[in-house]
């Protein structure tokens, strides 16, 4: 369970990142950067464990540090505290510039440059200085962490901001399961990175 999923330990303001080597029978083995484990945690420390699982979503446990090695840690007596399956609702704020092609309902096409303001596995909010209308389709390639995903998004609503830009809410259409999984994984991983950055600030 959780094999190779990203995970992090936290306790009293200390945070340690890594990935799951194994998780079974109430024990989790975590791989860390060389030397990182010994400086942050010691055997006997009570910890909270956050696992970003591609299937189960955000999974949280409590436990205690049983072993500390140069590149790994063992967490014992895992107790599940929460599981949050966020595939349908998980959304992360970003600022990713993309280019694509817009096709109107009448079939007219033109190129488009826009900024993705937030994204989920099912849709996105974008900002652009170009004109976009409801039912326009945007075909573009999104650079997720694992790979670049070819996406087709339909504009559901748009409105002008106080400046010169237009913000639009879009939903993805024609997604295959692999692309859906990639986007969901991207959202979880990006949320985890942003969370750890806030904790360290």
From TrEMBL:
InterPro entries to which the protein is assigned, alphabetical: PilZ_domain
Gene3D superfamilies named among the record's database cross-references: predicted glycosyltransferase like domains
Domain of life: Bacteria
GO MF terms, alphabetically ordered: cyclic-di-GMP binding
Domain PilZ: 85-189
Designated name of the protein: PilZ domain-containing protein
Organism: Cellulomonas humilata
């Amino acid at each position: 369970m959780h094999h190779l999923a990203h995970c992090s330990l936290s306790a009293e303001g200390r945070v340690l990142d890594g990935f799951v080597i194994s998780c079974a029978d109430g024990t989790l083995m975590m791989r860390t950067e060389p030397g990182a484990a010994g400086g942050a945690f010691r055997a006997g420390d009570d910890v909270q464990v956050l696992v970003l699982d591609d299937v189960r979503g955000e999974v949280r446990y409590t436990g205690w540090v049983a072993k500390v090695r140069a590149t790994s840690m063992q967490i014992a007596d895992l107790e599940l505290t929460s599981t949050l399956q966020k595939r349908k609702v998980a959304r992360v704020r970003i600022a990713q510039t993309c280019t694509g092609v817009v096709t109107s309902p009448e079939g007219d096409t033109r190129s488009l440059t826009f900024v993705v303001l937030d994204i989920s596995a099912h849709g996105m909010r974008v900002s652009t200085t170009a004109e976009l209308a409801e039912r326009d389709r945007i075909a573009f390639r999104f650079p997720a962490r694992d790979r670049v995903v070819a996406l087709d998004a339909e504009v559901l609503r748009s409105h002008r901001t106080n400046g010169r830009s237009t913000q639009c809410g879009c939903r993805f259409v024609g997604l295959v399961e692999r692309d859906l999984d990639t986007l969901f994984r991207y959202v979880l991983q990006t949320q985890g990175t942003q969370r750890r950055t806030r904790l360290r600030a």
